[in-house]
Structure formats: C-alpha cells, structure tokens
Amino acid sequence: MNHWPFILAAYAVVIVGVGGLSLASWRSMLKAERAADALKDRR
Fold first, then answer.
1. Alpha-carbon dihedral sign for residues 30, 32, 36, 39
2. d(Cα 24, Cα 37) in Å, to the nearest integer?
3. Angle at 35 between CA 25 and CA 43, to 5 degrees
4. Nearest-angstrom CA–CA distance, 41 and 3
5. Between the CA of residue 10 and those of 6, 16, 23, 25, what are the distances in Å?
6. What is the pLDDT of residue 15?
7. How far apart are CA 11 and CA 16, in angstroms?
8. Can you tell which superkingdom this protein's organism belongs to (predicted)?
9. What does the DSSP 8-state code read for residue 28?
10. In this structure, what DSSP letter does residue 34 have?
C-alpha cells in the first residue's frame, strides 16, 4: 500500500493552513496598526 498520497495531502493541508493563518494575521496586524495610528492622530 502506497502512503504517499496521504502524506502529500497532509503536507498540502498544513501549507494551506499556515498560509491562511499568516494572511489573516498580517491583515489583522495592518488593521491594528491603522487603529493605533488613528488614536495617535486624535491627540
């Protein structure tokens, strides 16, 4: 029995998951930076 399809699928799921999490974190960081800049400009 060949296990490579399962192994490759598992790696693909991890890569897509890490990429999605990284993108979501980056977008959240940009939003937080904009909010911090807005608070700084209010003074």
1. positive
2. 20
3. 155
4. 57
5. 6, 10, 20, 22
6. 98
7. 9
8. Bacteria
9. H
10. H
Dist CA 36 CA 40 (whole Å):
6
pLDDT digits (tens, 9 = 90+) for 3-25: 999 999 999 999 999 999 999 99
Which pair of tokens denotes residue 21? 């999490």
Secondary structure (DSSP) of 10-22: HHHHHHHHHHHHH
Task: Examine the pLDDT at 30 and tell me if it is beyond 70.
Answer: yes
Instruction: Return the residue matching tokens 């980056």.
Output: 26
